[in-house]
Design goal:
This protein is mostly helical and 498 residues long. It has 27 helices and two strands. A hairpin with a 5-residue loop joins strand 1 and strand 2.
Length: 498
């Protein structure tokens, strides 16, 4: 009986709500129909009873983001979108119009390729605060918020996002807000071996997580480190590059980077200061860079020597010094290599005392040049100056009991090569050709340099009569070489080879 009574009461309530309200108002509309159109809603709103109801009741109208708006905006907004309007019965709480937004689906591309440190929510809030007076701008803000909400609801996985990055499709990194998701994104980029994707994700991580955490996670992924370092080099961000190399304990690369930066300084004084600072900060503290530290120190010392030499010689040249008139300088000595500096000083200051900056001997000792380097450079300079006495001094050494002898650490064949390149006279060239050990080598070089007397002497020492006759037939008649060859051929003391 109780169940029957409840069914009757429910049927009575249903009959009550589905009957006379509409008939009393003599209206053709059913206010509980869910398919009321916009036109139907407007006609319904024009009825006097409903208008009075809206006037009497305190209606709270909300915007798309649940913020209250004015009635004028609400009424105009209703006319621009498809609406569904429903009212509660008079016996229940006061009715409120409910508008459901059904605009065409927004595209996710509005959020594509966003790697900015500022989130979209921050940009929207800042934009709203400065342009709240404009209705169009307010609508655009709401559109962006809905688009962001829709993008978050899609919940793109790291795999899908990396795939879009590789294929060149629109993507968004802004939707990944948690550290675990961002690290998964980086790991997936490394798995597909796409350098652009790896670099983009690394930059996104740098902008959105703490530096300490970024450095820690980067060290765990060598592939990401290499791509990030390549990016920094390509964009000439040497400060960040040096910091990352130091953080990774790659001290040698960091030191070489700082050295390159110091060498790139155009001003000589600034370069000297930069080299000294680089030496002190990066090379000297590292025991593994002892050899490199010595080279950097020598570079700085060379610049300290070149600066006053260039200053003094430029003034002497301007004042008309004879040596600079006879052999004008072609370029400045500043920033020249060590061997070029030695050649310059041998050429213009070959006789200077060892206590002067211009002394070639002082340069040799300070920069630890070998005897071969020094002799070759000094010989080239003196040969160009045609200073034959100076060449003899270079190639003379003291022997036992005060005697002297000719010695060449580079070999007399190299001496003759240098003399030939500088067009030395035949008698000077022949003098040092005779000092070459080995008859065959001496014969070949003498014939190459056309020192006929040395050729004839060598053939006589080899007792090669046939070769001597053939060679003499090619010489100019009446030359000294021909006379020497004829005298040797007529000599009865020479035992020729059969």
């Amino acid at each position: 009986m109780a169940a029957l009574n409840r069914r009757r009461e429910s049927q009575d309530d249903e009959d009550y709500w589905m009957k006379s309200t509409v008939n009393k108002n003599k209206s053709k509309f059913n206010i509980f129909d869910d398919d009321v159109t916009v036109e139907t809603a407007e006609d319904l709103a024009k009825s006097k009873k409903l208008l009075s109801q809206f006037d009497e009741e305190d209606v709270d109208t909300v915007n798309w983001d649940d913020t209250p708006v004015s009635k004028s905006i609400t009424s105009s907004a209703i006319s621009g979108v498809t609406a569904r309007v429903s009212f509660t019965p008079p016996s229940q709480e006061p009715s409120f119009p409910v508008v459901q937004y059904s605009k065409s689906q927004e595209k996710l591309q509005t959020l594509s390729s966003s790697t900015s440190a500022v989130s979209i929510e921050d940009a929207i809030s800042g934009y709203k605060s400065t342009n709240s007076s404009s209705r169009n701008q307010e609508e655009e803000i709401q559109y962006l918020k809905r688009a962001l909400r829709k993008a978050k609801e899609l919940k793109f996985s790291p795999e899908e996002t990396i795939k879009k990055m590789v294929l060149g499709e629109p993507y968004s990194l802004e939707i990944f807000r948690y550290k675990e998701e961002k690290l998964q994104l980086l790991d997936k980029a490394i798995q597909v071996h796409d350098g652009n994707a790896i670099t983009a994700v690394v930059l996104f991580l740098k902008q959105t997580i703490k530096p300490s955490l970024f450095n820690l996670e980067l060290q765990r992924r060598p592939v990401a480190v290499n791509h990030y370092l390549s990016y920094l080099r390509a964009h000439y961000d040497f400060k960040e590059l040096g910091d990352v190399l130091g953080m990774l304990n790659r001290t040698e690369e960091a030191a070489i980077l700082k050295y390159k930066q110091a060498v790139g300084t155009s001003d000589v004084r600034g370069k000297m200061a930069a080299l000294k600072g680089c030496l002190k900060a990066h090379f000297l503290p590292d025991p593994d860079l002892t050899h490199e530290a010595n080279l950097v120190e020598q570079h700085a010392s060379l610049l300290e020597r070149q600066w006053p030499i260039e200053d003094a010689d430029s003034k002497a040249e301007a004042q008309g010094s004879p040596v600079f008139k006879q052999h004008p300088r072609k370029v400045s000595i500043l920033n020249m290599p060590l061997i070029t500096t030695l050649y310059y000083c041998c050429f213009y200051h070959g006789r200077d005392a060892e206590n002067l900056l211009t002394s070639p001997v002082a340069i040799k000792k300070q920069h630890q040049l070998s005897d071969k380097q020094y002799i070759w450079t000094a010989l080239s300079a003196r040969s160009r100056l045609r200073h034959w006495t100076g060449i003899e001094e270079l190639l003379t050494a003291k022997g036992w009991f005060g005697s002297t002898k000719n010695v060449s650490v580079i070999g007399f064949d190299k001496v003759c090569e240098i003399l030939h390149k500088t067009s030395a006279p035949e008698e000077i060239l022949s003098k040092y050709l005779r000092m070459i050990d080995g008859s065959e080598k001496r014969f070949n070089l003498a014939r190459k340099y056309k020192c006929h007397e040395v050729v004839v002497e060598t053939l006589v020492s080899l007792r090669d009569r046939a070769e001597l006759q053939a060679y003499a037939s090619k010489l100019p008649p009446g030359s000294q070489g021909v006379k020497m060859a004829q005298d040797a051929l007529r000599s009865s003391t020479i035992k020729w080879k059969t």
